[in-house]
Amino acid sequence: MNLLKVDMAEGRTRVEPLPDDKVLGGRAIIDWYMTEHTSPGVHPLAGGNPFIVAAGLLAGTTAPSSGRLSVGGKSPLTGGIKEANVGGAFGHKLGRLGFLGIVVEGKASQWQVMRLDSRGSTLEPAGDILGLDNYDACEKLRGRYGQEIAVIITGPAGERRYANSTVAGTDVGGRPCRHAARGGVGAIMGAKRLKAIVIDDAGTSFRKAVDGPAFRAAVKGALDAMKNAPYGQKLVTHSTASFVDVDNNRGSLQTNNYRLGKFDKVGGINADRFIELNKDRGGSMGHGCMPGCVVRCSNIFHDAKGRYVTAGLEFETLALLGSNLGIGDLDAVARMDRKCDGIGIDTVDTGCAIGILNDVGLFQFGDAARAEALIEEIAKDTLMGRVLGNGADVTAKVFGIDRVPTVKGQAIAAHAARSSKGWAVTYATSPQGADHTAGPVGAGDHLSPVGQVAISRISQIVNTALDATGLCHFTFSYKYPEIIAPLINAFYGLSLTYEDLLEMGKEMLRQERAFNLKAGIGPGADRVPEWMRTEPLAPTGGVFDVPQEEIDGFFNF
Amino acid sequence: MNLLKVDMAEGRTRVEPLPDDKVLGGRAIIDWYMTEHTSPGVHPLAGGNPFIVAAGLLAGTTAPSSGRLSVGGKSPLTGGIKEANVGGAFGHKLGRLGFLGIVVEGKASQWQVMRLDSRGSTLEPAGDILGLDNYDACEKLRGRYGQEIAVIITGPAGERRYANSTVAGTDVGGRPCRHAARGGVGAIMGAKRLKAIVIDDAGTSFRKAVDGPAFRAAVKGALDAMKNAPYGQKLVTHSTASFVDVDNNRGSLQTNNYRLGKFDKVGGINADRFIELNKDRGGSMGHGCMPGCVVRCSNIFHDAKGRYVTAGLEFETLALLGSNLGIGDLDAVARMDRKCDGIGIDTVDTGCAIGILNDVGLFQFGDAARAEALIEEIAKDTLMGRVLGNGADVTAKVFGIDRVPTVKGQAIAAHAARSSKGWAVTYATSPQGADHTAGPVGAGDHLSPVGQVAISRISQIVNTALDATGLCHFTFSYKYPEIIAPLINAFYGLSLTYEDLLEMGKEMLRQERAFNLKAGIGPGADRVPEWMRTEPLAPTGGVFDVPQEEIDGFFNF
After folding, report:
1. How far apart are the C-alpha atoms of B363 and B383, rounded to whole Å?
2. How many CB atoms lie within 10 A of CB B5?
3. Residue B45 and residue A394: Cβ atoms within 8 Å?
4. Burial code of B167-189, b = ≥16 C-beta within 10 A, e = fewer?
5. Fewer Cβ atoms within 10 A, N terminus or C terminus of chain A?
6. Cβ atoms B82, B187 nearer than 8 A
7. Taking the CA of residue B551 as centre, how many other CA atoms within 13 Å lie in the half-sphere pointing to its CB?
C-alpha cells in the first residue's frame, strides 16, 4: 500500500510505497512517521510538523467496521504526539484507492483543497468555502466535486489555528458530524493552509485478500462475534447515549465542572430521553458512521419541529456539554454539539473550558443560554472565543484558575476519574493526554485502586493495536485474539499471533512515549491533577488513590 | 539561622531553625524546600505550592553587595521550579532579623499583609492597597508601617494571578523598582492572598562572623577585587544600559521581534542617550539597589520636565521593550518600564509578548503608543490584558503564532541566541527556562558553536552557587575562588574549597532538574526554538548551530 506525500509549499504530491518490512496502518503510521521523520522539537503549527491522515490495515476491505481513520501529528494542545480517531466514510475510500496514509508538510501561500481519486491527486484553490460552517462548506464541496465524495475538513477554528480544533469527516450521509476531535489536529491541518481533502473512490473495488476464502471466513467469524457481543444490541437501540445512565448510576458522570459524579437532571439528557424525543420528531438510533458498519452506535437528533439538528451526539458530548455544565436539556446540548461541529472544535475540551469558568463566576451551572453564547463567541472569533477555542488549559491560565481537569494539556473526558479509577489511570498515562479513546476500562471494581494500572495497561495495549487496524473500538477489543488476528493474517498472508499483536501495541506506545520524551514531556507528566487525590467526588465519596509509584511503573512492559 | 513558616489558611506563623547539616541560603533554600517538602505535581496556583523568599548566606552582614533575594516556588509560567533573583533592601534586613527564608503555604480567605520585625511577625488585613499601582501601594504601606521599612509586594497582576507577574521589592529609596520578575512568582504570592511582606530591622545589628578578623579581611579583599574588576567602573558610569551597545555591536541585540541583531535606532536607547538626557533632567547613574552595594550598576530616569519616571531601567528592559519592539525612544521605554513596575509584570516576557503580535498584524515595530496602550490593557485587566499578562507563550497560543521565542514557556532574554551562542545554551538548558540570570556567557567567540556548552555549564554552576550566597552577579563570578569562599568560610567557620562551592552549584542544578523531571518537564525541553536553527540573524547571519546532542549532554557533570 502507498503513502501520499504532500508538499504544500511547493504544491506537489508524490506517491511512495509504505515500508514493506513493517505492518503499518492507522495510528501505527503516525507513530512510525513521527518517530523516523519528524523532529520532536518542531512547533506544532510549523510547516515541519506533518499533518498525517492514516487508514487502518483493513481499510477498503469487506471487514466490518474497519474504516476508522487516524489523524495526527504533534499536538498543539498537548505538545506531544497525537492520534485522533474518527469514523466516517473517508478511511474506507482511502484504502480502496490504494493508500493507507497521507502526509502533508509545509505551508501553502493560499488556502487549498486536495482532491484525491482514482486518477491521482491535485491541489486546488479552496475558494469560497473558507470561513464557512463545516456543514455549509461540505455542501459546497459536494456541489463542486460530486455527491459521492467523502470529505475531511478543518473548520473555521482550524483556519484560525485554535489548539482545540478538530478535523471533521463526513459520515455515510455526507454530514461532517464525525470528528477527529482531540489534540487540536484541525490546527495542524489549518497551519498548512489545507482546508479540506476530498476523496472519490468511483471506479475502485474492495481490496483483495491474499487468502480470499480464509478472509471471508474471518469476516463471518467477526460478524458473528460482534452480533453476539454483550452490549452490542444496546448500542444499536440506545447509541452511545446509553453510557449516560451507566456512568450516572456508577457515580462517575462528570457533572458541574467535575464536582459531582451524579446528575440530578440526568433524565433530560440520557438515552431514554433521546428515544422519547425521537418518536415524534424523526430522529434515529442505530446509525452507522462508516460504510460497512455493523456496530451502529450513533444517532441523529431532530428538533421539536422535526428538523435535523445534529448527528453523532455521543456520550462524551452529552456529558461534557450536558451534565458537566449542569444542563439537563437535550435540545440545548444538541444545538451546542451542532455548533461545535460547524466550527470544528472538540466538545470535550470545550465543555471543560466552559465548566471551569464557573470557578471565576463567568458561568453558572444550568445556564444553557450562556453556554451557547460562549460557543458563539468561538464561532465569531472574539478574543474570548480565541481563549476558549484554545481549550481548557489556556482558558485556565488566562483566568488564573488552579483547579484544572486536564492531563498533558488536554481535558479529562466523561468518565469521572475518582469513581472510575481505571479510566483515570488511562487519562494519566496515555501519551495522548487525557483521552477517552486511549484505553477504556469497563470492568472490575471501579472504586477500588487495586489492579487498575494492570487493567488500563492491557486496555491501552489492545486498543492501540486496534487503532492500527482501522477497526472500531466497539468491535469489542477484548475479543481481539479471536476476531482481529485472523482478519489481518488472511488478508495479508501473515501468521501473527495474539502475542505479536500485543507486541505491536506495546511498540506503538513505546514510540509515542519516546517521542513525547524528546518533545520535552517527561514521565512526571503521567499524573492526574492533584486535587483529584484530595477532593471527594459525591456520591461515591471517591478520591483518586491509585499510588503514583504504581502509575509510574505503567510503562514497564 | 531561621526559617519563617507561614500558613495562610490558618493565619499562623512559626519559626523553625534551618537544617544545620546543610549550607543553605538563597536559591539553595528554594531548591532544598521544593525537593524535600513539595509535591512536583502541585498546581502552581494551588495552596500547596510554597511561596518562598530566601536571602543569601551573607545577608545582613558587612559583605558588599550581599543582599540579593531569591523568590520562588513552582512557576506558573514554566511549570517547573523557579528562583527569581532581585536586589533591594529586603534581603539584607531579613538576614539582620535572623531569618534566611520565609515559606508561605495555603490560601487566606482575605488578602493579608505580613509584617516582620524584631518583635516577631503578624498577618494583618491588606486593606486599601489592593489593586493599587505598586508605587502607590508602597507609599501607603510606608504611611502605615513607617518610612524605614522594606517591602516585597505582588502587584495588581499578581492579585489576578497572571503567569507573568513579578514580586516587586523596594530599593534603598523605598521605590518598588526592583523585581523578582521572571517565572510569574508574583502569581504564586497572589494565589496565597498575601499582598505584601513589610520588614523592619530597627533595633538589629549586622550579623556577627564566627571569625571576625578573617571576615573583615575577606570583605576588604572582595572590595578591592570588585573595584578593580574589568568593567566595574563602566557599570557605575553607564549602568547596565552599557550592554545595549555591547550587544548591538556584536549583532546580538534582540530587535524587531527577535528578527534582527542590530537596531538602527540604538542611539535612542543606549547608555550615551541615557547620560545625555540625565544632564538636563536630573536622572542619575551609579545607583546601588541594595544596602552596601559597591557595584552600583543601576540608574534613575526623569522626564523632560525633570520629574521622576522610573528607576532600575536595565539592559533587558531597554532591549525587550525598546529594540525588540523597534522603539528607539528612551522616554517611551521608561514610561513602559514604570507602568510594568506599577502593575508588577516582567518587562522581558511582556516585550516578547507584544513583539510576537507583529506576526499577526496586531503590532507594528516602532509604534510606541500602541505598545504603551497594550501595557495599559494589562493594567486595566481587559481580556487582551489577561492574555498578554500571562506572557508570550499564552499569547502565542491564543493568536496561533508558531514563531515563539520561548524556552520552557519563558521568553528568551536580550542577548540574541544566534549571535551569542553561549547564552543560547544557557537559555536551552537552565531548569529556570530562558533566563538572563541563569548563566551569562561574556567571553569567547560568540558566533562559534564550539565550546559553548562547556562555557555555559561552568557559568551556570558558578552563578547558581552565587545565588546561594546573596552576592550580586556583578561581583564578577569568575573571581569566585578568590572572593567568595573566604567570605563564607570566615563568616561561618567553614573551610569550603572552590571545588566544594562548585559542587554546591552542581547539586542545586541537579535538584532543580530532578524537580522539573518529576513535574513533567523532560530533558527534551532543553532546546531553543527550532526556527533559530534555520532563520539567519542579520547582520551576523548566524543561526544556532550548537549540536543538540552536545546540549543533551549538558548535565553530565
Report:
1. 17
2. 16
3. no
4. bbbbbbebbbbbbbbbbbbbbbb
5. C
6. no
7. 23
Instruction: Dump pLDDT digits (tens) for B406-446.
Output: 999 999 999 999 999 999 999 999 999 999 999 988 778 99
Provide φ and ψ at A408, rounded to 5°: 50, 40
- Which residues span the domain enclosing A191? 2-199
Least Cα separation, residue B480 to chain A (angstroms): 33
CA B147/CA B305 separation, integer angstroms: 27
d(CA A23, CA A64): 20
- 8 Å CB contact of A400 and B48: no
At A59, list the grid cell. Answer: 481499510
Whether the per-residue pLDDT at A150 is higher than 90: the answer is yes
For β-strands B112-117 and B194-199, DSSP reports them as parallel
Round to whole Å and give the CA distance between B530 and A509. 26
Q: What is the pLDDT of residue B226?
A: 78
A122 within domain boundaries: yes
Query: Are the C-beta atoms of residues B72 and B91 closer than 8 Å to each other?
Result: no
A410 phi/psi in degrees, rounded to 5: -120, 140
For the segment A393-419, what is each residue's pLDDT rounded down to a tens digit?
A: 999 999 999 999 999 999 999 999 999
Residue A283: which pLDDT band, with cuts at 50, 70 and 90? Answer: very high
A53 domain-assigned? yes
- Domain of B121, CATH number, reads 3.60.9.10
CA pair distance A537, A213, nearest whole angstrom = 53
Contact A526, A425 (CB under 8 A): no
How far is it, in rounded angstroms, from Cα B364 to Cα B109?
43
What is the reported pLDDT for A231? 67
- Residues of chain B with Cβ-Cβ distance to A399 below 8 Å are 386
Angle at Cα B315 formed by Cα B310 and Cα B319, nearest 5°?
Answer: 100
* pTM (two decimals): 0.96
Per the structure, the count of domains in chain B is 1
What is the reported pLDDT for A402? Answer: 97
Rounded to two decimals, the ipTM of the complex is 0.95
Asked whether the beta carbons of A461 and A193 are under 8 A apart, the reply is: no
Residue contact B41–A402, C-beta within 8 A: no
CA B432 vs CA A397, B34, B191: distances in Å: 19, 14, 20
Taking residues A145-161, report their average pLDDT.
98
Q: Which of A397, A410, A517 would you mutate first to test chain B, the one with the most B CBs within 10 A?
A: A397
pLDDT of residue A553: 97
| Sheet containing B2-7, strands listed edge to edge, beginning at the edge strand earlier in sequence | B12-17, B2-7, B99-105, B51-55, B69-74, B81-86
Confidence of residue A482 (pLDDT cuts 50, 70, 90): confident
User: Is residue B138 included in any domain, yes or no?
Assistant: yes
- pLDDT (tens digit per residue) in A99-129: 999 999 999 999 999 999 999 999 999 999 9
Interface test with A, best of B154, B161, B402, B526 (most A CBs within 10 A): B402
CA gap A448, A224 in Å, rounded? 34
CB pairs under 8 A between A and B: 132
Q: Examine residue A542 and state whether it is found in any structural domain, yes or no.
A: no
Set of cell numbers at residue A220: 463471518
Closest-approach residue (CA) in chain A for B76: A397
| Mean pLDDT of the residues in chain B | 95
Q: Which tens digits make up the pLDDT trace of B498-545?
A: 899 999 999 999 999 999 999 999 999 999 999 999 999 999 999 999
For residue A96 the three cell numbers come to 480502496
Element (H, E) at A395: helix A391-399
> What is the predicted pLDDT for the residue at B332?
98
Q: Has residue B480 got a pLDDT over 80?
A: no
Nearest-angstrom CA–CA distance, A408 and A414: 17
